[in-house]
Amino acid sequence: MKKGKIIGIGIISALILPTTLNVVQIPQYSNVAIVEAATVKLSQTVLNLKVKQTYNLKIIGTTKKVTWSSNKSSVASVSTSGKVTAKNKGTATITATVGSKKYTCKVTVKTVYADGTYTGTGIGFRNGTTKVSVILKNDVITNISVLSNQDTSRFFNYAKPIVIGEIMDSQSTNVDAVSGATYSSNGIMDAVANALSKAKN
């Protein structure tokens, strides 16, 4: 056996670590609330109303002061709180002003009844027919004429001016019958109501 030196051959692996470690912390947002900006708008941008109808417009998405106005108050007016009142047939624009911003609503007003002359019939005494003519203008009954009737003359002629006068004054057929001439009164009221039903828009 020969004597000699033993030479070890191998691979030495070394792991070099940095002396300092910079740690970057990432902020957490789990507790942050995300708030969306509210959209300011009118509750309605188009309205269709009949004469004398009302509607309460509202501005949504702000608590700031609102100034209301109408470009044609004769057709549709608006109060300081946004209440729109239909007055006459036509169109109007309601504007809500908030700061420098303006929001509009187009209002179309129609009459309950179409203008014109209409005839109607009702049942009077002993099922007799009463026929009337009614003239309408801008939802106002301007005239009522009796064209014919089959009632007893003295009862009918007694009821006629009273009932027609009350209908004209109240602009309604919901009036009291004349005592002693109930059938004649009802015949006139029913005839006028029948004429009005034909005039509705």
Automatic annotation (TrEMBL):
InterPro entries: Big_2, FMN-bd, Invasin/intimin_cell_adhesion. GO terms for cellular component: membrane. Residues 36-108 form the BIG2 domain. Residues 124-199 form the FMN-binding domain. Gene3D superfamilies: 2.60.40.1080, 3.90.1010.20. Pfam families: Big_2 (PF02368), FMN_bind (PF04205). GO terms for molecular function: FMN binding. It comes from the Bacteria. This is FMN-binding domain-containing protein. It comes from Anaeromicropila herbilytica. The lineage of its organism: Bacteria, Bacillati, Bacillota, Clostridia, Lachnospirales.
